[in-house]
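Severity: low
Component: inverse-folding endpoint
Summary: output formatting inconsistent between runs
Steps to reproduce: submit the following C-alpha cells with default settings.
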C-alpha cells in the first residue's frame, strides 16, 4: 500500500515539475517576445520575427526607394519632379510601433500556425512650398502660363484669313497642384489628368466683338462660285477670297458703307496666276516619259495645248465678285473661256489617254485611261534625206482605212491612217519587214510614224479623234 502511494506521489511531483518547466518556458518565451515581434511576422517587406521594433523600423525605412513624382497631361506628355527636390520623406516607424503595440506576446504559440504579413500605416511628409516651386518650373506649366488666352483674326499668306483662339482646353493649374498635394499626402506619386483638369477661358468684351466681326467676314469669304478646270475644281472660299479683298496690316478694309472692298489688282493677279498654271499652248513643256526620263517638248511645231482667254476671264470674275448671285446658296459652276482648248482640261491637259512616240529609242506607247494598250517598234523620218519627224504635242485629227498617201516622189497604200499634224500621222507600212533600231538613219519614213499592221490596227480600233500625240527625243 505504501509503495503504491509513493509511486502516485512521485508521478504527481514529476507532472508538477514538467508543468512548471513548461510554464516557465512559456513565460520566458512570452517575456522574450514582449519587446520583439512574434514568429512568422513580416512588416513592410522586412522579416521581423524576434527583432525589436527599432531594428525593423530602421531596416524598413532604409529599404524605401522613392519614385519620381509624375504628371501625365491629357496629350500624353509627361512631367517629372525629383522627390528629393521637395524633401519627400516616408517614415514607416509609426506603423511598425503600432503593430508591435497590438501584438499579444502571450499568444506566441499561435503565431507558429499562422503567417502574418502586415504593414499599412505610413507617415508621408514633403515641403509644399518647394513642391509649388518645382511645379511652376515644369515646361508644360511655363508654356500654359506664357500662352495668354487670345482671340484674334489672323491672315496667313498661304491659307488666307482665319481665327487664332486658344481659350478652350486650358489647364487648370491650381487644381492640378491641389490634387498633386492630395495625391502625395496619400502616398501616390502619379497624377494622370483627365478632362476635369481643363477649362475654357471666358472671352473679353473686345474678343466678343471680334467674334462678331469674324462671323461677318467668314460669311463674306464664303461664296457659291466654283471654277471648273476639268480635273481640278477651284472653290471660291476663304482660301481664295481672302486674297481678293483689300487688306491693311493683316486686316480686311471696309468702305464707307461697311462693306468689304474688292482689290482689282489682286483679281487681275489671280487670273494671271490661273493662266500661268493652266496655259500650255505655244509653250515648251516637260513630259515624264515611259522610260522614266523627263524630257522637254518644244513648242515650235506643237498644235496641242490649253490657252485661257485672259481678258474674258478677267471681265467675268470682276463682274461675278459684285454679283448678287455670288452668295444666293446655289452653286455657280464656271468653265473658263479658252482661245485654245485641249482635249483634256486640267493641269495635265495631256491626260491619261495618249500616244507617246520616243524618237531616240524608235519606240511607241499607247495609253488609254492610264492603261498601256500597246507598245511597239517604229520607224520615223529619214534624217539624212531631210525627212525629219516634227517634235511636239499634237492631236489625232482623223481616222481612215484603206487609203493612199501621196508625196512628191511616192504613193503608198496603207490600211490604217491616223494623221495628227499637217501631212504627218501614224500608219502601217507593209513594205517593211522590220521596225525599230537605227533603220530611220538610212531607210526612214517621209516623216510619218511607221509600224506593223497589227500594231496600227490596235491603235486604230482604240483611238479617238483628239487623242494627244507626244513626240520627243532626248
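Observed output (run 2 of 3):
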Amino acid at each position: 500500500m505504501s509503495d503504491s502511494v509513493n509511486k502516485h506521489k512521485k508521478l504527481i511531483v514529476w507532472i508538477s515539475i514538467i508543468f512548471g518547466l513548461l510554464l516557465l518556458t512559456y513565460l520566458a518565451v512570452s517575456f522574450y517576445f514582449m519587446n520583439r515581434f512574434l514568429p512568422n511576422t513580416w512588416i513592410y517587406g522586412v522579416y521581423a520575427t524576434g527583432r525589436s521594433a527599432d531594428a525593423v523600423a530602421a531596416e524598413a525605412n532604409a529599404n524605401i526607394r522613392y519614385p519620381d513624382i509624375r504628371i501625365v497631361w491629357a496629350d500624353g506628355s509627361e512631367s517629372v519632379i525629383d522627390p528629393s527636390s521637395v524633401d519627400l520623406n516616408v517614415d514607416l516607424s509609426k506603423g511598425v510601433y503600432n503593430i508591435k503595440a497590438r501584438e499579444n506576446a502571450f499568444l506566441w504559440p499561435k503565431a507558429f500556425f499562422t503567417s502574418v504579413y502586415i504593414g499599412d500605416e505610413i507617415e508621408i511628409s514633403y515641403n509644399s512650398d518647394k513642391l509649388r516651386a518645382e511645379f511652376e518650373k515644369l515646361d508644360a506649366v511655363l508654356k500654359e502660363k506664357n500662352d495668354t488666352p487670345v482671340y484674334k483674326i489672323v491672315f496667313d499668306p498661304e491659307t488666307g484669313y482665319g481665327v487664332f483662339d486658344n481659350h478652350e482646353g486650358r489647364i487648370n493649374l491650381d487644381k492640378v497642384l491641389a490634387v498633386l498635394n492630395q495625391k502625395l499626402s496619400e502616398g501616390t506619386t502619379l497624377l494622370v489628368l483627365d478632362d476635369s483638369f481643363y477649362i475654357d477661358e471666358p472671352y473679353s468684351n473686345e474678343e466678343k466683338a471680334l467674334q462678331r466681326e469674324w462671323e461677318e467676314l467668314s460669311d463674306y469669304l464664303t461664296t457659291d462660285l466654283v471654277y471648273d478646270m476639268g480635273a481640278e475644281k477651284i472653290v471660291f472660299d476663304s482660301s481664295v477670297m481672302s486674297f481678293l479683298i483689300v487688306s491693311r496690316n493683316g486686316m480686311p478694309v471696309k468702305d464707307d458703307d461697311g462693306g468689304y472692298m474688292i482689290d482689282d489688282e489682286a483679281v487681275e493677279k489671280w487670273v494671271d496666276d490661273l493662266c500661268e498654271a493652266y496655259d500650255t499652248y505655244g509653250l515648251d513643256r516637260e513630259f515624264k516619259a515611259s522610260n522614266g526620263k523627263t524630257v522637254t517638248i518644244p513648242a515650235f511645231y506643237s498644235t496641242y495645248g490649253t490657252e485661257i482667254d485672259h481678258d474674258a476671264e478677267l471681265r467675268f470674275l470682276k463682274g461675278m465678285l459684285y454679283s448678287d448671285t455670288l452668295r444666293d446658296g446655289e452653286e455657280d459652276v464656271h468653265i473658263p473661256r479658252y482661245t485654245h482648248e485641249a482635249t483634256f482640261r486640267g493641269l495635265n491637259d495631256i491626260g491619261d489617254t495618249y500616244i507617246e512616240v520616243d524618237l531616240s529609242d524608235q519606240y511607241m506607247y499607247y495609253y488609254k485611261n492610264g492603261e498601256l494598250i500597246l507598245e511597239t517598234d517604229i520607224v520615223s523620218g529619214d534624217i539624212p534625206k531631210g525627212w525629219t519627224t516634227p517634235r511636239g504635242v499634237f492631236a489625232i485629227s482623223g481616222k481612215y482605212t484603206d487609203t493612199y498617201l501621196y508625196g512628191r516622189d511616192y504613193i503608198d497604200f496603207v490600211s490604217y491612217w491616223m494623221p495628227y499634224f499637217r501631212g504627218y500621222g501614224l500608219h502601217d507600212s507593209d513594205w517593211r519587214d522590220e521596225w525599230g533600231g537605227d533603220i530611220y538613219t538610212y531607210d526612214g519614213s517621209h516623216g510619218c510614224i511607221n509600224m506593223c499592221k497589227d500594231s496600227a490596227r490596235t491603235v486604230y480600233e482604240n483611238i479617238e479623234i483628239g487623242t494627244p500625240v507626244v513626240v520627243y527625243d532626248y
